[in-house]
Write a structure and sequence with these properties.
Layout lengths: L1 H14 L9 E6 L6 H14 L4 E3 H10 L2 H28 L5 H23 L4 E4 L3 H9 L22 E6 L2 H9 L13 H20 L5 E6 L4 H12 L1
Parallel strand pairs: 1-3, 1-4, 2-3, 4-5
Helix pairs in contact: 2-9, 3-5, 4-5, 5-6, 7-8
């Protein structure tokens, strides 16, 4: 009986090796359209939850935000402005100096800032092991600026000041021809790349992908990993688990 109990305890430790005192590890997914960020995020989330980890995703954050009352939402937005106003002003000034200021760019920043405030409120009320974010600040800053500049050498070294704090950055590397084929096969048609003809899409993806990778590269603080999209999401998830253990 004692041997069975010890064996069970060992299995529990192997399944969930994180200490209960550890804070949630916030992981941001970065990569061009078609790289499989969302598919990988779903696979990582399912794998970690099956192993007994508490995982929070961007979808969970959005659902929580939609479930609270209007009064709480207004308070949340007021808190976001209080916490992020200096950065919003500085970000706006940076866009203005680079001649790409737009309300859309500011709205994108504020939206992620609201999600970030919501995220930390949720972390304060419940313990999570991981937070997986497939569409976060780096991706939004990239989307807000890619079609407005001819050269990115200057601004890509400035935008890291406006990133939100994360513990890990995962960059999903893919060749642009494969990414274009994946985009063609999507049914959402929400992205600007979805509406491009294939030849123009490949050309634009090549043009903008180097800029996105540099935004990832210039991030200060988080641990960074380049993930090959030649592997399946399941294979990547298994490699991720091996790295954790």
């Amino acid at each position: 009986m004692m041997e069975v109990q010890q064996e069970t305890e060992q299995k529990v430790v192997q399944v969930n090796p994180r200490r209960s005192t550890q804070k949630a590890e916030i992981i941001e997914f970065v990569g061009p359209p078609g790289a499989g960020k969302t598919s990988n995020c779903y696979c990582y989330t399912a794998m970690l939850r099956n192993l007994g980890y508490q995982v929070l995703t961007l979808k969970d954050i959005k659902n929580h935000l939609n479930s609270i009352s209007k009064t709480k939402r207004v308070k949340l937005m007021a808190k976001t402005l209080f916490l992020h106003l200096p950065k919003v002003v500085s970000y706006s000034f940076t866009l203005f100096l680079n001649r790409i200021f737009s309300l859309n760019s500011i709205t994108r920043y504020l939206r992620i800032a609201v999600f970030d405030t919501t995220l930390h409120q949720m972390l304060a009320h419940k313990k999570y092991d991981f937070v997986l974010l497939e569409q976060w600040m780096i991706q939004e800053l990239w989307s807000a600026t890619i079609f407005k500049l001819r050269s990115y050498g200057k601004i890509e070294k400035q935008l890291h000041r406006y990133y939100l704090k994360t513990d890990k950055l995962l960059y999903f590397d893919i060749d642009m021809e494969t990414a274009s084929v994946r985009i063609t096969n999507r049914t959402s048609n929400l992205s600007r790349f979805d509406r491009m003809d294939p030849k123009r899409r490949v050309r634009k993806l090549k043009q903008y992908n180097a800029y996105l990778f540099n935004l990832y590269k210039y991030a200060h603080g988080p641990e960074k990993h380049v993930i090959s999209t030649k592997n399946s999401p399941q294979e990547n998830a298994n490699h991720f688990l091996q790295h954790l253990t």
